[in-house]
Write a structure and sequence with these properties.
With about 475 residues, the protein is an alpha/beta fold. It is about 45% helix and about 15% strand. It has four domains: about 5-130, Response regulator (Rossmann fold); about 160-310, Rossmann fold (3-Layer(aba) Sandwich), CATH 3.40.50; about 315-390, Orthogonal Bundle (Helicase, Ruva Protein, domain 3), CATH 1.10.8.60; about 405-475, Homeodomain-like (Arc Repressor Mutant, subunit A, Orthogonal Bundle). It is built from 20 helices and 16 strands. Helix 13 crosses helix 15 (about 360-375), helix 15 (about 360-375) crosses helix 16 (about 380-390) and helix 18 crosses helix 19.
Length: about 475
């Protein structure tokens, strides 16, 4: 690439701009850099660019909201959006603006360079069809909360399926929010004016699944005293969400496959085929590989459903989102009539350290319980432990500073004649937090981001505790 294909970078963070410019220049691109909307418009008026990369929040306005002016000057120029406002709302706004690609910060530099290469080889925005922009729904009101890298991947996948009717398969553990993803795709996509019909196939008796999905005629079976319209017909023109699809009986799988292939269904006991126009979103918490191997789930149906896979991360893999989720649920609890509450920083940190086997659903229930049962408006760590208990689990820690293992010490406290009742959690934290952090920094060569990921806590929390404990992370750096 040469100066014949210049790239315009609109970024007011000098450090980020320097990194991007260096990476793109290594690829042979010529770069023009500016830090404001006004300077951007001057650059566009003076010359043509192959691609524009733009931040959202700039010193003189919203780089995303002002893209209409860019389109007026350079309607065929691909635009790549960079943003630290890492919400579903921002991702959807980027999609609405026909951005070629959207990268939440921090982004993978190699992925960004690859996207620029692709954009430089294209003409025109990602889609010329702006008639289906999702202006009818406020994306920030959709109940998907989190700015972690894992959730950014989910948001990007959602935006890629809003303007098409491709079948989506959402997978993830129970409680991660699979139905919320399906609702977001429907409410923000081109099917939003049609019905959204959800059916949990695991909750329907096996002998009634086909009737539930496809309907039945009067007299089709014992108890069929009248004609019934199935979920496919109810969802006609909209979206059909098939939850727990992995639990569907084999015979119903065959009929579902036929319906997906032909776009037509037949009611149980009926002779006439009925054309249906539905978008299918399926979800499961099951692993399909052993099910396909054992013959309990049809391999051809799996490939028919798995057109666009979206994988929802468990909460333990995005602990940095817990604080935002807690605030979200506290507001929701107050709107549902419970007392208004706040949690202290240490109380939220205590929640961040838990396992959350029930994922976001469990966290929501815990926050509602705290809002109901707390005695004070401001909930501290002691209140959290009093109401929901402590998950402090005895595990053997590496030897550090001559101290014994965590399990040995905890066992000695619990079996002591006069154990430190009501203070074990805080005593354990005080005794072992420093060597624990030292161990994580040692394992990661002083890399605080990787150490935070290893510990399962927020990077900002780790930095704060490093300062408060007087640790010197540089001494752990690899030579």
């Amino acid at each position: 690439m040469t100066a014949n294909n210049p790239i315009l970078l609109v970024e007011d963070d000098a450090a980020i701009a320097t990194v991007i410019i260096a990476a793109l220049e290594d690829e042979g691109f010529a770069i023009a850099h500016c830090a404001s909307i006004a300077a951007r418009d001057k650059q566009l008026a003076a010359r043509q660019f192959a691609v524009m990369l733009t931040d959202v929040i700039l010193e003189d306005g919203d780089g995303l909201a002002s893209l209409s002016a860019v389109r007026d000057r350079a309607p065929d120029m691909p635009v790549i959006v960079l943003s630290a406002q890492n919400t579903l709302d921002t991702a959807v706004r980027a999609s609405e603006s026909d951005a070629f690609e959207y990268f939440p910060k921090p982004f993978d530099l190699d992925e960004l360079v690859h996207a620029v290469r692709q954009a430089a080889g294209t003409r025109g925005p990602a889609s010329a069809d702006t008639s289906q922009a999702v202006n009818g729904v406020e994306a920030e009101k959709m109940p998907l909360v989190g700015r972690s890298p894992a959730m950014q991947g989910v948001y990007r996948m959602i935006t890629r399926v809003l303007r098409n009717d491709l079948t989506v398969l959402v997978t993830g553990e129970s409680g991660t929010g699979k139905e919320l993803v399906a609702e977001a795709i429907h409410e923000l996509g081109n099917r939003r004016t049609g019905p959204f019909v959800a059916v949990n196939t695991a909750a329907i008796p096996a002998d009634l699944v086909e009737s539930e999905l496809f309907g039945h005629e009067k007299g089709a079976f014992t108890g069929a005293i009248s004609q019934a319209i199935g979920k496919f017909e109810q969802a006609n023109g909209g979206t059909l969400f098939l939850d727990e699809i992995g639990d569907m009986p084999s015979e119903a799988q065959t009929r579902l496959l036929r319906a997906l292939q032909s776009g037509r269904i037949r009611r149980v006991g009926g002779r006439q085929e009925i054309a249906v126009n539905v978008r299918i979103i399926a979800a499961t918490n099951r692993d399909f590989a052993p099910m396909i191997a054992s013959g309990t789930f049809r391999e051809d149906l799996f490939y028919r459903l798995n057109v666009v896979p979206i994988v929802l991360p468990p909460l333990r893999e995005r602990r940095e989102d817990i604080s935002a989720l807690v605030q979200h649920f506290l507001i929701a609890a107050a709107e549902d009539g419970l007392p208004r509450r706040t949690l202290t920083t240490h109380a939220i940190e205590q929640l961040e350290q838990r396992n959350w086997r029930g994922n976001v659903r469990e966290l929501r229930n815990v926050v509602y319980r705290l809002a109901l049962m707390a005695r004070e408006e401001r909930i501290d760590t002691d209140s959290v432990i009093d109401i929901i208990g402590s998950e402090l689990t005895p595990t053997i820690m590496p030897q550090s500073g001559g101290q014994g293992g965590f399990g040995d010490a905890l066992a000695s406290w619990l079996t002591a004649e006069n154990p430190p009742s009501g203070a074990i959690y805080h005593r354990a934290l005080a005794a072992f937090e420093k060597p624990l952090i030292e161990y994580a920094l040692g394992r990661t060569g002083g890399n605080q981001l990787r150490a935070a990921q290893l510990l399962g806590i927020n990077r900002n929390t780790l930095r704060k505790r490093i300062g408060e404990l007087g640790l010197e992370p540089d001494r752990f750096s690899a030579p």
